[in-house]
Design goal:
The chain has about 120 residues and is of the alpha+beta class. About 45% of the residues lie in helices and about 10% in strands. A three-stranded antiparallel β-sheet has the order 1-3-2.
């Protein structure tokens, strides 16, 4: 194996975290679960994300087969991003995460009263 290539983790959770690192990655998938979107639509839906971060995440998703990028030869150019079947497979995971997050008491995520282990 080339030194620049990283070995794919054998643990499923580690693989998931490798591909969906950081909160933006998961939120991008969440938005695309509603259907295909243009870059500007994604950026508007994700308040606070930079164009650089969105571009980087989308390119990475495309490389790993999670998203397809379709460019239409129009003026102005139109590019649409859509989940592949592999990306669509994240639906149950994100729905479970949302359900779990919704079940937390409101003060569970505040800085004033952190969760106690």
């Amino acid at each position: 194996m080339d030194k620049t290539q990283k070995k794919t983790p054998c643990c499923g959770v580690a693989r998931f975290l490798t591909l969906l690192d950081g909160p933006w990655a998961t939120l991008i998938v969440r938005e695309l679960l509603h259907g295909p979107l243009r870059f500007t639509e994604l950026r508007e839906a994700l308040s606070g994300i930079s164009a650089h971060t969105l571009t980087h995440r989308l390119k990475r998703f495309e490389l790993h087969g999670i998203v397809t990028r379709t460019a239409y030869a129009e003026t102005p150019p139109r590019v649409v991003y859509e989940l592949t079947p592999l990306g669509e497979g994240l639906r149950d995971v994100l729905e479970a995460m949302g359900k779990w997050g919704d079940s937390l008491p409101d003060d569970a995520t505040s800085n004033e009263s952190p969760l106690k282990w």
